[in-house]
Structures are given as C-alpha cells and as structure tokens.
Amino acid sequence: MTDMPSAADLLHLRGTLPEKGEPLSLPLTMSSVFHLPGDPAGVPAYGRMANPTWEAAEHALGHLEGAPALLFPSGMAAIAAAFFALLKAGDRLLLPTDGYYTSRLLAENYLARLGVEVEQRPTTAFSEGGFEGFAMVFLETPSNPGLDLIDIAETARAVRAAGGLTVVDNTTMTPFGQRPLALGADVVVAADTKAPGGHSDLLAGHLASNDPAILEAVRDWRKISGGIPGAFDAWLLHRSLETLELRFARMCDSAEVIAARLAAHPAVRAVRYPGLPGDPSHGLATSQMTRFGFLIGLTLADEEAAERLVDTCRYLRAATSFGGTHSSAERRARWGDAVDPGALRLSIGCEPVEELWQALDAALRPA
Predict the structure, then answer these.
(1) How are beta strands 136-140 and 92-96 bridged, if at all?
(2) Phi, psi angle pair for 214, to nearest 5°
(3) 136 pLDDT above the threshold of 80
(4) Are 301 and 269 in contact (CB under 8 A)?
(5) Order of all β-strands in the sheet with 92-96
(6) Alpha carbons 139 and 317: distance in angstroms, whole number
C-alpha cells in the first residue's frame, strides 16, 4: 500500500490565505478570452489553452494523484488523449478484454485503422504471454464490471523492462483507494464523472503522470484537438473534490457491509467484491488497495430477478454510471457485455447503510 493524499490539504489548496473580503470558494471564470497586452507568456491567453477554473481543478487532482494532472471533458477524452498523443502507426497496444467497453471500441474502431495493432487479453490471464513489443499496456483494475484485479506493480515492472508504457484506468477506485503512479504506472487516467464528481451533475476526466515528456505531449494534443474541459464542469468538480474523501469512505464502509450480507442471502447466486475473504481478488486487493471500493458484482437467478430488484428497491436507481451519492444498479448484459443475464453492478451510495440494506433485502424477497 502507499500513502494516501491529505484530505485536509485538499480543502486548503488555494495556496495563500484570502485577503479580507475575498471569497473562500473558488470563483468561476467563464471567459474564453483574456486581456493580453505585451508579452503573452505565463498567463492565460485563450480559452482553448488555459482557464483559471480548470487549472485550479487540475491542481486539486494533482494533489490527489501525487503528480501533475490534466483535466478533460470526460474520462473517455482523457483515455483518447493518452492513446492519440502517445501512440503512432506501427505501435502495439494491449488492453483487457473485460475492461470498460468504450475504451476497447475506441482502440478497435479508430486506432486500428490508423495503423496501431490492438491486442486484448482477459484480466485474469493478462500477464500470460509477456509484454515484449507493446508500446502501451492499458490496465483497468478492478475491472468494470467484473471486478477482477491486475497486479499494477508487477505489471508495470515487466512493461518497463520490455520498453513500454503502463497506463492505468483508476476510475473504479479513485486516488483515495488506489495509487497507480506510486505503484509504478507511467500514466493514470480516470473518469471524474464518477465518484470524484459524485453528484451526477458533471462530466469530466483527467490524466496524470510524473513524466514531463508525457505531460507535454498530452497537453499539446488537448490544445490542438480542442478536447478541453468546460469551465462550469471544472468548477463543479473542484467543489466535489473537497468532499470526495468523506463520500468515498462512507460508500466503501457501506459496500463492505452490503456485500457480506448479499453473499449470505438465499436469493443471491454469486457476489463479487474484493473485500470478501473468499473473493478471488481479495489477496491482491489487501496489498494493492487501501479500500475495497463501492462497487459490488451481484448475480441473481435470471434477467427477470435482476430487473425486479432494480425496479422495486426503494433506494436503488437504474443508471449506467456509478460513484454518485445515490445507490444505483446496472445490468451490463443489456449493453452487450459478456456477463450473466442475471448479473448486476451495484454502486453503493451515501444512504445510511441499514436503511439501504432493508430496502435491498425487501426487494430480494419473493413477491
């Protein structure tokens, strides 16, 4: 495990004490142009290049990651920036077959036709075959929606020895639950739409790295391609990051309780949660992660049972995202994922855990 970022420092990142009468909250800068007489160096020049609001959000994200961060309008925009800024025709890219499907679609439908060779392996056998010849190895751990794990430190060492870059999608865990850069990854990406935003009211993503050349390449890609964040979403994200540690801790605490009770419930066929002692990922989770997360994989009897739980549980909302204050559920089979028809991905929110459990238990009981 690695040291966690200071939640107290995160609340006080404005740098200097405000002057008398200045706002404590971050001001929202909506301007697309800036007053620019004389030498333009060192100040915002144009809204596609910089904005004080998203620079403040980047500063907060950099504190969380322990490395400089770049903000994007979505998690997929951050992943696209990593792919297009760091790969070229003739390179080989390795991804997990069971990770977030849109990352795979981007690679298969766009990188491949530009001359990047795209290969995939299941998370549970990801290291088989080694990493020789790959320019980039893209990990997602825990995987979404299967919740299988990859050993980040071991993989990063092997990829670096083979001359490649390791990029980790840390969306499911946040920096308070897992620190990919500290474990040896070259790049971390995440969808801040999820738990960092936390209120289901913004879209954002980020990329962080301690390698100046990587950051410069990605920053140039963002500036030239125009894949920049909106100021208002950046402002909302900055607001939300101040409570991330509180929300994440409650969500993880509740998920540990809920997962254990679901595993013992007669209506449940199977549960995947890294915090359960019998889970296949538990051993690695205890050494790689500081928390076990807020996502639970749940398998019921069939599609009908899964849909009934989502429809009848008082405190569960059907949603394809996760990490919000409201608990939600998604049946990934409806999107074509290769999962059991009765499988659900539960995202545990901020409801009091006993009230949430009573609602789940009531919805699981026979009608």
Answers:
(1) parallel
(2) -65, -45
(3) yes
(4) yes
(5) 69-72, 205-208, 187-191, 165-169, 136-140, 92-96, 117-121
(6) 29
Domain membership flag for residue 236: yes
pLDDT band at 1 (very low <50, low <70, confident <90, very high): low
- The amino acid at residue 193 is T
For the stretch 56-85, pLDDT in tens is 999 999 999 999 999 999 999 999 999 999
Residues 6 or more apart whose CB falls under 8 angstroms from that of 354 comprise none
Query: Alpha helix locations (H) across the chain?
Result: 7-11, 52-65, 75-86, 101-106, 152-161, 212-225, 231-241, 244-263, 282-288, 303-312, 353-364
Cβ–Cβ contacts within 10 Å for residue 297, how many? 26
Q: Which tokens hold the place of 262?
A: 């679901």
Beta carbons of 126 and 136 less than 8 angstroms apart: no
Are residues 322 and 219 part of one domain?
no
Find where tokens 């595993």 sit: 263
Q: Are 189 and 79 in contact (CB under 8 A)?
A: yes
Whole-number Å distance between alpha carbons of 344 and 363: 14
CB 248 within 8 A of CB 347: no
Q: Are residues 49 and 148 in the same domain?
A: yes
pLDDT in tens, 5-23: 888 888 888 666 778 888 8
CATH number of the domain encompassing residue 80: 3.40.640.10
Look up the domain containing 177 and give its range. Answer: 7-240
Q: And the tokens for 111?
A: 């990188």
**Other C-beta atoms within 10 Å of 267: how many?**
14
> Could you tell me which residue, 14 or 130, shows the higher pLDDT?
130
Distance CA 311, CA 280 (A): 30
- As a whole number of angstroms, the distance between CA 126 and CA 169 comes to 15
Task: Fill in the DSSP letter of residue 46.
Answer: B
Axis-axis angle for helices 353-364, 244-263 (nearest 10): 40
| Domains contained in the chain, number | 2
